[in-house]
Amino acid sequence: MGVAVLAQATGLPIIPLISRGGSPLWGRGDFSPRSGHVELTVLPPIDVTEAHERSPRALTDELALYMQREIERRSISE
Q1: Which of 6, 16, 45, 71 is the most core-located residue (most Cβ within 10 A)?
Q2: The model's pTM
Q3: Is 64 exposed, middle or buried (0-12, 13-18, 19+ CB in 10 A)?
């Protein structure tokens, strides 16, 4: 919920990021990652100026659903 609270408090947009390939780079109990390839996808900014009527939880849930749909859409198109 932190990103929603911060965005609502500042009026700044949320910039969603999708990362792939990072999990195998972190060993159990490791404090630093191994060398490897991580892909970051920057999604379009989400304007929250009209989001003040929604709770941070509702905004976070909407963001999670949006990102899940984007991940699925991009997985299908690859």
Answers
A1: 16
A2: 0.70
A3: exposed
Quote the tokens at residue 50. 């009209």
- Cα–Cα separations (whole angstroms), residue 45 to 5, 25, 41, 77: 16, 28, 12, 22
- Given a contact cutoff of 8 angstroms between Cβ atoms, the answer to whether 24 and 32 are in contact is no
Q: Output the CA–CA distances (angstroms, integers) from residue 20 to 25, 30, 64, 71, in the order listed.
A: 11, 19, 16, 10
Structure confidence by residue, pLDDT tens digits, 57-70: 988 998 999 989 98
- Beta bridge mates, 28: none
| pLDDT tier for residue 49 given thresholds of 50, 70 and 90 | confident
Q: Residues with Cβ < 8 Å from 45, sequence gap 6 or more?
A: 13, 14, 15
**Which pair of tokens denotes residue 48?**
């929250």
Residues in the chain: 78
